[in-house]
Design a protein that fits this description.
The chain folds into two domains: about 140 residues, NAD(P)-binding Rossmann-like Domain (Rossmann fold), CATH 3.40.50; about 190 residues, Dihydrodipicolinate Reductase, domain 2. The model has no long low-confidence stretch (mean pLDDT about 95). Strand 11 and strand 12 form a beta hairpin. It is an alpha/beta fold and about 375 residues long. It contains twelve helices and 14 strands. The strands form two sheets. A nine-stranded mixed beta sheet has the order 13-12-11-10-6-9-8-7-14. It has a five-stranded parallel beta sheet with strand order 2-1-3-4-5, sandwiched between helices. Helix 1 packs across helix 11 and helix 4 runs parallel beside helix 5.
Length: about 375
């Protein structure tokens, strides 16, 4: 099978997320990186792309040049990853979807609900795939959690407690660091800082595992560092459309917390807990029973978990394999489209534009709630009410 072709916008030299995408897209040898517009500085972007081995005529100065160049080619890229600041996601993603090129967009998908509605509608109209990189849903045991909930192991879900907290933005003296400054600048990040950056990962995880979506929410945002225009800590309570309550905390000033992405799911028959820093163990406690440690790769897991596992138990896989599972899903889906067939169901777990739309609606609702002293606000996008 020939490789699919892939390009990237943003994620240039020194980027935090760029190397992750380049490694993960290549892990299964399903994609070849053949085009890129990698930096806001055209010369730097072209130079870095050439050093990555991209042909000179496909090392572009900006995304518009890349769109024009790729759409004029018979061997145009199959997939583009958009890894630029939030405020640029909409126009880039829409333009490539309109050209019939599949898109994996970093989250948040857009900065306004209106833009997100348009992206979801554009993907539906054009038939092009628009995925959103909630990459943590690619973990094997996260997919097993989802399977356990879906088959009724927990019974009716009652409560989900989820957090995504870290302390890497806690130093006020580091406020001008360009890797973090844009996250609290409304002109680049939109109306929300930490909730839009990490909190929606947590909310999407709760939705992904439970099979439910946010119906209404109440939030409290705070900027603990006074120079920041957007929040660096948020507490959000969510009522899901299936009746489950979600308690969500997200923070970038939680000193001593290293990428603290954790989820606990409590149902009438038992509870599950999983932490992203220790992703190969899932803890399952049935009501009135003993806690069982479910090990990734240990056998007798769900088909979803088995498909997402690459190496034997006892060898940690981690974030790179989780993100690679999203690319593997997309490779299956894109290949199926090219061949005019239906993709296998196990390849259809990647987050979609509709997931991205729900997240943007939740961001807007959370901002509105916080501005109104925690008032409950409808968290659904207008088109899905």
């Amino acid at each position: 099978m020939s490789k699919l072709t892939w390009g990237m916008i943003g994620g240039g030299e020194g980027s935090q997320i760029g190397p992750v995408h380049r490694i993960c897209s290549a892990l299964d040898a399903r994609f070849a990186m053949t085009a890129g517009a990698l930096d806001a500085d055209p010369a730097k972007g072209r130079d870095f792309a050439m050093r990555l081995g991209i042909a000179e005529d496909r090392c572009y100065g900006d995304w518009k040049d890349m769109l024009a160049g790729e759409t004029s080619r018979k061997d145009r890229i199959d997939l583009v990853t958009v890894a630029t600041p939030n405020a640029t996601h909409y126009k880039i993603t829409k333009a490539f979807l309109e050209a019939g090129i599949h898109v994996l967009c970093e989250k948040p998908m857009t900065v306004t609900v209106e833009e997100a509605e348009d992206i979801a509608a554009t993907a539906k109209r054009t038939g092009a795939i628009c995925a959103v990189n909630y990459g943590y849903t690619g973990y094997s045991l996260v997919r097993h959690m989802r399977s356990m909930v879906a088959r009724g192991d927990l019974g009716q879900l009652r409560l989900i407690v989820v957090e995504f907290s870290h302390g890497f933005h806690a130093d006020a003296a580091d406020a001008d660091n360009p890797r973090m400054r844009w996250r609290y600048d409304p002109a680049q990040a939109g109306i929300s800082g930490q909730f839009a950056d990490c909190g929606i990962h947590a909310l999407h995880m709760a939705s992904y595992v439970s099979g439910q979506n946010a119906r209404e929410l109440s939030s409290d945002f705070v900027s603990t560092i006074s120079s920041r225009k957007l929040e660096d800590d948020a507490m959000v309570n969510v009522r899901m459309d299936g009746g489950t309550t979600v308690r969500l905390w997200t923070s970038s000033v939680a000193v001593g917390s290293f990428h603290g992405f954790n989820i606990r799911v409590f149902g009438e028959k038992g509870g599950l807990r999983w932490a992203q820093q220790w992703p190969d163990q899932l803890y399952w406690t049935p009501v009135n029973g003993r806690t069982e440690v479910i090990e990734r790769g240990s056998g007798n897991l769900s088909a979803e978990a088995e498909r997402a596992t690459r190496i034997a138990t006892g060898h940690s896989e981690g974030m790179l394999v989780a993100f690679a599972n999203i690319y593997a899903d997309l490779a299956e889906a894109i290949a199926a489209k090219k061949q005019g067939r239906t993709p296998p169901p196990l390849a259809c777990h990647y987050p979609t534009a509709v997931d991205g739309l729900r997240s943007i609606a939740a961001i807007r609702a959370a901002v509105e709630s916080s501005r109104n002293v925690g008032a409950w606000v409808d968290a659904r996008p207008p088109s899905l009410r």
